[in-house]
């Protein structure tokens, strides 16, 4: 299918007029965006339909990626790119006298996730479609996305994110595909006359799950897969039972808000409801689809792969069992084999507080039949494993213990594959966090290092760099990212290096213009741009970054004539609303920013920009402008990280601990092209084992650090009396759980190495180029190929020359 500019203009105008019955030039940019979205939907609908039909006709194996979070980002431009009509449409829009970027910018960025895990799910959707793999996303259509973050007096304030305020052009409501999800009530098992026990339910609350489908358009391959998000509604026949607003609220609530917390425990019951809601709806629709094909049950796991993105959808295990046992009448062994063979699980964190567990009583009351099944799975696990592994080990792996249901245990026992998201993370899972399971099921464990889609994170976010690469090495890298390594040949080419520098400067100017407009902060685009963008967590150590900034500030105050490499420090981070300490760090950094940005002694030597409401769209603005990528988590804590990959792909140099995927970045670029610092995972483990670490001693031995910490409590930074004290105490009184002080000196030394290198522009640009050229292996296309081959056993469309 080719589309000329003239055809586009004609078709687009038609769509617009049909929608708004008015003149396009008078329309608002939201209306223009809506019309363009509709045009794209129509343009791609044939492929969407055909893809579906093709999968059905050929009875191909399909993947279902279950995720509580998706962070797709704005979709207009990426859909145009993948359809191969970005340039045509852009030109057409321009010729019509409209502003393309303004139209693009009027799309609301759907924040249906918290952070890394949700964005990963969306990168995966892009790669699955682009590889022509028959794949589907399954999640929740939250009425409100992750809160909008505002700063008021430097404090984070959360506002509701009404992302559907202008409607959503991409989705298609499919009420004909709705299913019923059952909660609560009582259940008992009754002989059905055919020697089978069937459950009898009473007093259940039945909720209608209505799917909204969104096309996931593959890159120039005519494939359109499906992302299915479920919304909770009152079934029409039950309207009569909902007499009060409060009654109705209980139902609406299920898909009302994204659980805004990726660290702590809150609103447990609601979250459990959400998890069962989208899991049950998804599994029901899979089984319905499978039955339509009239294949024997033995074919189920040859046709269907169900992937659970962390434990949030782990109820897939008992739900599939329930349907197979209760509704389809299969025996336990057969149902169990089907379940295990179909389901696979990714772990994304080793942080104990993010390991999901539900009180037994809560599950019993909310999901009585599911509870019975979990109990039976647990009992069979014990009966089978005790003779093989003994009681002690087996009881450490049970699903139910101490009055809780452990979701990771359920996911591991009920699946055939368990993977971590970077090599170190997988090693830690095997050796520490999930060690007992590794002993029991060594062959289930495997690593799948995360990846990112180069289409969004380079092609769209950094078009100038894309053109430069195209010009030098051709376009092959777009479908085979390994080809990016060809770019290395230009690492000594002065012309290329200077183009690279110009592009970086332009991207920095673009960010500077944003900072000026939004925050009235003047930035010098020739300064070094230092970027840390990720959720706010103690283990990610934004605090370490801030202490280094404070240290520099003191140096300037001591000697205002000091020659320092000018720097712009950019932060983007949301804190979970209930995570008080994280919010205190935000306040501290904002107060520090205020002090430094307004101190005439500092001038252009240092500026701090803490952007509000960091998300996918802001990442697209910030990442291309970065010189340094801060990846400074305490070693062993960050499962993988993915901003590290995006920043590297855009030519930032990584300043990092040996944590998560940073280690793999180091292996690819070589130690001379990365700034490493800090404790290693082994060293952290050793310190933890010895238990002799004393933050106070580190402080006593380091005069410079001592001065920095004093500033937290001596009033030098206005308006942080409480926060400064709490942070100080976390470091000294509570002995610095994340070894911020221990790593301080080596962090500062790494920063000094970075400053020094930045003086030598050519050397710096060379390293930037090597980083770009080495980032191919982090393409999500490769990650997905490995999932497809090694876990899901699904095939993509014939893809040329990928290695
Ligand atoms: C239990 C619930 C509160 C919860 C909700 C969300 C627990 C965890 C999460 C999200 C975790 C997450 O985003 N983890 C990140 O996953 C990325 C993708 O694998 C990793 O790159 C990153 O290191 C990890 O922190």
From TrEMBL:
Cofactor: pyridoxal 5'-phosphate
UniProt xrefs under Pfam families: Phosphorylase
This protein's record includes keyword Glycosyltransferase: yes
Enzyme class at the top of the EC tree: transferase
One MF annotation (Gene Ontology) recorded for this entry: 1,4-alpha-oligoglucan phosphorylase activity
Glycosyltransferase recorded as keyword: yes
Catalytic activity: [(1->4)-alpha-D-glucosyl](n) + phosphate = [(1->4)-alpha-D-glucosyl](n-1) + alpha-D-glucose 1-phosphate
Domain of life according to the entry: Bacteria
CDD domains on file: GT35_Glycogen_Phosphorylase
EC number of this enzyme: 2.4.1.1
UniProt cross-references to InterPro entries, sorted A to Z: Glycg_phsphrylas, Glyco_trans_35, Pyridoxal_P_attach_site
Keywords assigned by UniProt, alphabetized: Carbohydrate metabolism, Glycosyltransferase, Pyridoxal phosphate, Transferase
Alphabetical list of PANTHER family matching this protein: GLYCOGEN PHOSPHORYLASE, GLYCOGEN PHOSPHORYLASE, LIVER FORM
Role according to the record: Allosteric enzyme that catalyzes the rate-limiting step in glycogen catabolism, the phosphorolytic cleavage of glycogen to produce glucose-1-phosphate, and plays a central role in maintaining cellular and organismal glucose homeostasis. Phosphorylase is an important allosteric enzyme in carbohydrate metabolism. Enzymes from different sources differ in their regulatory mechanisms and in their natural substrates. However, all known phosphorylases share catalytic and structural properties.
Similarity comment: Belongs to the glycogen phosphorylase family.
UniProt-recorded name of the protein: Alpha-1,4 glucan phosphorylase
């Amino acid at each position: 299918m080719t589309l000329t500019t003239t055809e586009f203009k004609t078709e687009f105008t038609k769509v617009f007029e049909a929608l708004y019955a008015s003149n396009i030039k008078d329309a608002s940019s939201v209306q223009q965006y809506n019309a363009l979205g509709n045009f794209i939907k129509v343009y791609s609908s044939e492929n969407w339909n055909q893809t579906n039909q093709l999968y059905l006709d050929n009875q191909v194996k399909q993947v279902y990626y279950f995720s509580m979070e998706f962070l797709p980002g704005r979709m207009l431009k990426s859909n145009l790119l993948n359809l191969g009509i970005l340039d045509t449409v852009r030109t057409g829009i321009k010729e019509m006298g409209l502003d393309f970027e303004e139209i693009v910018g009027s799309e609301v960025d759907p924040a249906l996730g918290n952070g890394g895990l949700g964005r990963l799910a969306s990168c995966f959707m892009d790669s699955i479609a682009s590889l022509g793999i028959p794949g589907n996303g399954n999640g929740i259509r939250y009425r409100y996305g992750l809160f909008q973050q505002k700063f008021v007096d430097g404090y984070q304030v959360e506002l509701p994110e009404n992302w559907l305020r202008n409607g959503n052009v991409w989705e298609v409501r499919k009420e004909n595909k709705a299913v019923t999800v059952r909660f609560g009530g009582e259940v008992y098992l009754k002989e059905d006359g055919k020697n089978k026990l069937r459950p009898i339910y009473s007093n259940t609350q039945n909720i209608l799950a209505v799917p909204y489908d969104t096309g996931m358009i593959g890159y120039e391959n005519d494939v359109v897969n499906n992302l299915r998000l479920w919304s909770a509604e009152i079934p029409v026949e039950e309207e009569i039972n909902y007499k009060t607003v409060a009654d109705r609220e209980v139902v609406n609530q299920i898909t009302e808000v994204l659980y805004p917390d990726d660290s702590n425990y809150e609103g447990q019951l609601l979250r459990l409801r959400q998890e069962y809601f989208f899991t049950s709806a998804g599994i029901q629709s899979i089984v319905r689809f499978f039955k339509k094909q009239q294949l024997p049950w033995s074919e189920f796991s040859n046709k269907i792969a169900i992937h659970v993105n962390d434990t949030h959808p782990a109820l897939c295990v008992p739900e599939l069992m329930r349907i197979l046992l209760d509704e389809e009448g299969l025996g336990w062994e057969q149902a169990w084999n089907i379940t295990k063979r179909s389901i696979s699980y990714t772990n994304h964190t080793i942080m104990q507080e993010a390991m999901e567990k539900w009180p037994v009583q809560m599950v019993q009351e909310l999901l009585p039949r599911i509870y019975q099944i979990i109990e039976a799975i647990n009992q069979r696990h014990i009966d089978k494993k005790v003779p093989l592994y003994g009681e002690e080990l087996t009881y450490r792996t049970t699903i139910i213990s101490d009055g809780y249901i452990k979701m990771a245990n359920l996911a591991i026992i009920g699946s055939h594959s368990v993977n971590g998201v970077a090599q170190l993370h997988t090693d830690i899972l095997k050796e520490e966090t999930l060690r007992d399971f590794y002993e029991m099921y060594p062959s289930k464990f495997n690593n799948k290092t995360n990846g990112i889609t180069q289409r969004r994170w380079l092609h769209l976010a950094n078009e100038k760099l894309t053109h430069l690469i195209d010009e030098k090495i051709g376009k092959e890298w777009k479908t085979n990212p390994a080809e990016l390594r060809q770019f290395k040949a230009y690492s000594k080419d002065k012309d290329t290096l200077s183009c690279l520098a110009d592009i970086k400067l332009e991207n920095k100017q673009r960010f500077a213009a944003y900072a000026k407009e939004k925050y009235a902060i003047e930035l010098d685009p020739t300064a070094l741009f230092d970027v840390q963008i990720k959720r706010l967590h103690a283990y990610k150590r934004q605090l370490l970054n801030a202490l280094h900034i404070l240290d520099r500030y003191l140096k300037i105050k001591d000697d205002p004539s000091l020659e320092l490499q000018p720097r712009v420090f950019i932060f983007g981070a949301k804190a979970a609303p209930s995570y008080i300490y994280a919010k205190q760090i935000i306040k501290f950094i904002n107060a520090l920013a205020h002090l430094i940005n307004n101190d005439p002694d500092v001038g252009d030597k240092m500026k701090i920009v803490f952007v509000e409401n960091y998300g996918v769209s802001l990442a697209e603005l910030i990442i291309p402008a970065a010189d340094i990528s801060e990846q400074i988590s305490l070693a062993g804590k960050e499962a993988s990280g993915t901003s590290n990959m995006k920043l590297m792909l855009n030519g930032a140099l990584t300043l990092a601990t040996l944590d998560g995927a940073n280690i793999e970045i180091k292996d690819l670029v070589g130690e001379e092209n990365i700034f490493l610092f800090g404790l290693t995972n082994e060293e952290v483990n050793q310190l933890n084992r010895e238990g002799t670490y004393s933050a106070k001693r580190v402080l006593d031995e380091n005069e410079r650090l001592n001065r920095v910490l004093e500033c937290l409590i001596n009033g030098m930074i206005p308006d942080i009396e409480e926060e400064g004290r709490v942070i100080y105490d976390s470091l000294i009184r509570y002995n610095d759980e994340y070894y911020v002080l221990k790593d301080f000196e080596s962090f500062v030394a790494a920063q000094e190495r970075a400053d020094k290198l930045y003086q030598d522009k050519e050397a710096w640009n060379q390293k930037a180029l090597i980083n770009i050229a080495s980032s191919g292996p982090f393409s999500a296309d490769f990650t997905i190929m490995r999932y497809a081959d090694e876990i899901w056993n699904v095939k993509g469309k014939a893809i040329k020359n990928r290695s």
